[in-house]
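Dear Dr. H.,

I hope your travels went smoothly. While you were away I took the liberty of generating a structure for the chain from your last submission, since the lab meeting agenda had it listed for discussion. I wanted you to have the full record in hand beforehand rather than looking at slides cold. The sequence, exactly as received, is reproduced here:
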Amino acid sequence: MSRIDLVINSVDRSHGTPSDFSIQLHRAIKVKAIKLKRSIIPNTIHTINANNQVLRVQTANAASETVTVDVILTAANYTASELATHVSTLLTASAPGTYTVTKSATDTSRFNFSCSQGFKLMFDNQQSPYKELGFFKGTTVTSEATSATTFDITAPSFYKLGYDYLLLQSRSLQSNMETTTGLSCFAQLPLNANSGGYAYNSEDYDGEHQIYETQKILNQLDFRLITPQGQLCDFNGIDVSFVFEVTH
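The corresponding predicted structure, in token form, is as follows:
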């Protein structure tokens, strides 16, 4: 048996994106064991991205007709305060009524929604930012307010903005590690860097994992990087890299 370090960079992919790609090896390798030694991951994941940027609101127009509006949030990194301001600005611009969204004065880990008229927040679409705004998937929150009455809706739960770790999945390698949420993966990658920086994970980091592929011949590898909730990551076009120790 012998060991080599195999360097994988998503920029060399045959197709895909930095978070979901396939890469062709320059030669076939008969693998007995493979181990992730190192990863370099950009911590540039958008708080709001293509997975969660559609906020649906139902309200009444000036003719008292019920209207449903899909408000498209701008993909970017947000603090809780920045996200609250952005949501209130877009709601007011896109739907009848004047909206104010703030962090709760009594519990800063929750959001309050206020409006000059009654409305429903509907988190029933696939691209709903329910977790980022502190709600449960599939729920509809209804106000009982009348016109010109201000009211608050306090989110029943709060989702921490950003992620502490990502999951590395692969179709060509065994995913024999399972998270508490039931997702399987090849490895867990801590995001131990500030937003905008690179998370450099060496071989002694938590979540290191090893699989054994008895006499399996690999000539191509594929990887997906997902959030702890299973959504594909959005690295804004920035590439990732890995170093594997391959026993062959």
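Two observations you may find useful: Residues 38 and 202 are 5 Å apart (CA to CA). The longest strand covers residues 20-42.

With kind regards,
E. W.
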